[in-house]
Specification:
Blueprint: H1 3-15, H2 25-35, H3 37-59, H4 91-127, H5 129-143, H6 147-158, H7 162-172, H8 175-188, H9 192-199, H10 204-240, H11 252-258, H12 268-295, H13 297-300
């Protein structure tokens, strides 16, 4: 054994054993998330889908609404990788632009419903009493509304724009987030750090925004992630039924509607948007389940 090695071991013995590595809760959650293969696969799928949709829209040489009667139901070729639909429009281009609409509606609906549900749940859980009772009665009332039939009627009457559709979906989809945030606040408001904040004179708004809401953020993010998939399915269903995004604006739902007459002769017109809906919803569900396991592993067992 060399003199250098002997001195190194002697120094380690004097210093004592190395201190264990202390990880923050965020680091621990990230480690658990990385170990979840389905969650990582979902995250990877979403990255590829977002790049495919939003970057592809910038490089495609075709207009999604350009009609070319000489290319009606054209087969896949070097110029049109997925072929053309029954109006001679490039299918890949419409798939890209339709994905941009469907993803935007899904993400915006989830964000808006998460914000509305968090606000109502926070007020109900923090104040309790008659405020809680009133907010939960409102939540129960919304839960009794048949979402799809109502959206179909509204869509048939108003011919909604994407933004109007986002608002309508959000107004009907905030209840789960509200119940979750309320249950978290009912627990957190009884903990010592909340009582300490009250004791030093912190106002209700500061306690909610700086103490309780950050400690509920993980569960809110998980719920919002899963809500994106539900919103995409709802938008696609409405568009397929003719009550959502109106042609010629492309979305995956109305592309499926337009493919009904060509499914046997040009199956890609139905397979392509259907596969995109399936993969996107699966990816968000895998991501949401993985985040749920990573943020609160005890609850997921």
């Amino acid at each position: 054994m060399s003199l250098f090695t002997s001195r190194k071991k002697a120094a380690e013995n004097v210093a004592g054993p190395a201190e264990p590595l202390v990880r923050t809760p965020t680091q621990q959650a990230w480690i658990r998330f990385r170990k979840n293969q389905l969650a990582m696969a979902g995250a990877g799928m979403l990255v590829v889908l977002v790049l495919f949709v939003f970057v592809g829209c910038l490089v495609t040489p075709y207009d999604p609404d350009m009609v070319d009667l000489t290319l009606i139901r054209a087969k896949p070729s070097a110029g049109h990788w997925l072929g053309c639909d029954d109006l001679g429009r490039d299918l890949l281009t419409r798939l890209l632009f339709g994905g941009r609409i469907s993803l935007a509606v899904g993400l915006a609906s989830a964000l808006l419903s998460m914000t509305l549900g968090s606000f109502i749940g926070a007020i109900a859980g923090f104040f309790g009493g008659w405020v809680d009772s009133l907010m939960m009665q409102l939540t129960d009332l919304v839960l009794t509304i048949p979402s799809l039939p109502l959206l179909m009627v509204v869509g048939a009457v108003f011919k909604p724009s994407p933004m109007f559709l986002v608002v309508m979906i959000s107004v009907l989809n905030w209840t789960k987030t509200a119940r979750l945030v309320r249950s978290r606040f009912l627990t957190l408001r009884t903990l010592d750090y909340t009582k300490a904040a009250r004791a030093i004179g912190a106002k209700d708004g500061r306690i909610i925004l700086h103490h309780l809401l950050p400690n509920s953020l993980g569960a809110i993010i998980v719920t919002a992630t899963l809500a994106v998939g539900r919103s995409i399915i709802m938008e696609s269903t409405l568009s397929y039924l003719g009550c959502g995004i109106n042609p010629p604006t492309a979305s995956w739902g109305n592309m499926l509607q337009g493919a009904q007459s060509t499914m046997t002769t040009a199956p890609l017109t139905a397979i392509a948007p259907g596969a995109m809906i399936l993969l996107t919803v699966l990816a968000f569900n895998f991501l949401g389940d993985g985040l749920d396991d990573a943020i609160d592993p005890k609850r997921s067992r």
